[in-house]
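Protein 1 of 2
SEQ + STRUCT:
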Amino acid sequence: MLPPSPLAVKIFPGGLTAKLKGPIIGAGVEKPGMALSSVEMGNPGYQGGEMIARIVHVNVVCTDIERSLRFYRDILGAKVVSALGGGESAELAEAMGFEGVAQYRAYLLSFGEGSKTSPATLIDLLQWIKPPGKGKPYDAMNNVGIARICFAVDDIDKTYEDLKAKGVEFVAPPRDVELRPGAVRPLLHRACFFRDPDGVMLELAAPAK
């Protein structure tokens, strides 16, 4: 087993930071293999592996690009960084494993300003035209894959009420959630969940009260 080592977990910029020492403990019993080497998670100054520099964007496929743009921009407050797509592309179709040509419309959206050392992760909001979009989002949050996207907010209860007033339907009101149930050192945050116009699950999160 690895020796005990410090761990700093920063969940929200300027917000909740949990500093732990030693192996992660659950229900008073040491879990084999859970000791971690020194690392600051969420710290822009931490340099991990050199193969991947950062997460650039998360792709959200929609059925009506203008309807979804109104939701993410006008209701959630996203900034439009760029409009993409329009024409047909055989090269894109080949790169993505489609037959013939590919065609789409998309907007790159930003939440927050980011910085030079930690640019904001973008949402690539995209409607496929050729081939047309198919399928539907997961109906539950325990599906394998990317099941939801989480947005950090300063005042989750006010944001919840503001979005409800704009017609957004939530799974439940904000709740304080234990991220490590049964652990000696609890780690709480406050969260609530809702869906976009196509049913993609989204989350609001903030430090627990």
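Protein 2 of 2
SEQ + STRUCT:
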Amino acid sequence: MARWHGEDAYVASGGGLSAIVVPERGGKIVSLSDESGYEWLVGPPDPLPPPASPGDVFRRAEMCGWDECLPTINACALDDATLYGDHGNAWSLPWRVIGDAMHVYMEELGLSLTRSISATPAGLRLTYDLSAERVLPILWAAHPQVRAPRGSRIELPPAVREVIDVMDEPARRAKWDATLASVDSVPEGGCRKVYVSSSTRSGAASLVTPSSGTLTFRWDPESLPYLGLWFDKRVRDAEARIAIEPTNGYYDDAARAAKAGTVAIVSPDAPLHWWLEVAHVY
């Protein structure tokens, strides 16, 4: 066991990457560093606020590291009795360590998530298992807040030619090009959220930096058929960030996605399983 700002933490290493995870903070990956010691994730504010509690608003929390959005990104209601909190419920609950994995039980929803982190030759593999006590639509998205210094850009597979800008209603289609892929094209103090067109299943995305190499994410596009990209040009603090967000729902609101048929369904007889890998190259 390690310590992070006085809190219990665990370290997972592989392929030149090292992750520090704090169970009490929603299983948050608070650090992801490479062999050079470069920190890829946005660090915590000073002073560090206490861990979030159920019902907290995500943007009023520590806004650092890598969170798990489950079972939604935007807060929503499925019915009068089933509420999904802001950025989901999992990030604001303490997780338990069980062997080599971490587990969280969302009692109000009857959902159980187990995540393990293992080494690969190139980096780390995160494996997820989700079970439920009743049938529920589930939108999971990774939310790694990766540092994006000037000159950083996103690289997607050549098949991706179009994205959907979802910042305004109605959402609009846009050509995926070098300008849109760059953090430098986001206005100072502004942000951008796009999804890869749902007709294109990418399975990979990379953040390319000018001096620290490339951080690449890979996943199974059958279980995670959608990809969101969040660009934040110092909206609330002094560090720009990009979040590469593979997800099983489209887009941020699980209730809306359920109506559109663009979300995963979990049930007692049909648990969900997915994985995500992250690797670094210079």
